[in-house]
Amino acid sequence: MNLCDVRLSSYDNAWYEPGPFWKRALWLMVGYRATRSGLPSSGLRVSLLRLFGAVIGNGVVIKPGVRVKYPWFLVVGDHTWIGEDCWIDNLTTVRIGSNVCLSQGTYLCTGNHDWSDPAFGLRIAPVLCMDGSWAGAKSVLGPGATLGVCAVAAAGAVVTGVVPDYQIFAGNPATFVRRRVLKQTVPARNEVAR
């Protein structure tokens, strides 16, 4: 007796083409394993990702254990930190701005399944982390999620929509907690002398 009309046997994502087979295979055999490893150099991980098509700015730190599904769908600004065991599951574009922090264990997910489709069809949407934003440890940014300028997804937060500029969201589902107020910075010595 069948109480449900879900038909996973009819699943078909033939419309989805993430890139040539040879490129995906080479990435999985060489690049993916190397970036996941304990390579002692962030620079080597950055170079490998760039070699496979990622656009990565200057001063980016990528810690060991980071997973990137498809580097050619990754854009990262300057001076961004990507912590241990982050998973950038980018079936489509993930854009990470400058001075962004993705804390350890953060999961950026660009794909999901259509729960209303009996065949469980694939749905994809980009993820965006604007300049100065911070995704706390073990936070999840789902398909279509955006962290605004200097926005924060607190540790363990599950974000499926937009966290507006300078706001802190926490929980599952993530909701507004408070505004983010940055302390005034002290000018560097060479700036004081001017």
State the strand order across the main sheet: 2-5-8-13-16-19-20
Uncertain runs are none
Count up the domains. Answer: 1
Total helix count? 3
CATH level-4 homologous superfamily = Hexapeptide repeat proteins
Structural summary, described in words:
- With 194 residues, the chain is an alpha/beta fold.
- The chain has a single domain (19-181), classed as UDP N-Acetylglucosamine Acyltransferase, domain 1.
- The chain is 15% helix and 27% strand.
- The protein is built from 3 helices and 20 strands.
- A hairpin with a 4-residue loop joins strand 19 and strand 20 (175-179).
- The N and C termini lie far apart (81 Å).
Architecture blueprint of SSEs:
Elements: H1 21-36, H2 42-51, E1 55-56, E2 61-62, E3 67-68, E4 74-76, E5 81-82, E6 87-89, E7 94-96, E8 101-102, E9 107-109, E10 111-113, E11 122-124, E12 127-129, E13 134-135, E14 140-141, E15 146-147, E16 152-153, E17 158-159, E18 162-163, E19 167-170, E20 175-179, H3 189-192
Parallel strand pairs: 1-4, 2-5, 3-6, 4-7, 5-8, 6-9, 7-12, 8-13, 9-14, 12-15, 13-16, 14-17, 15-18, 16-19
Antiparallel strand pairs: 10-11, 19-20
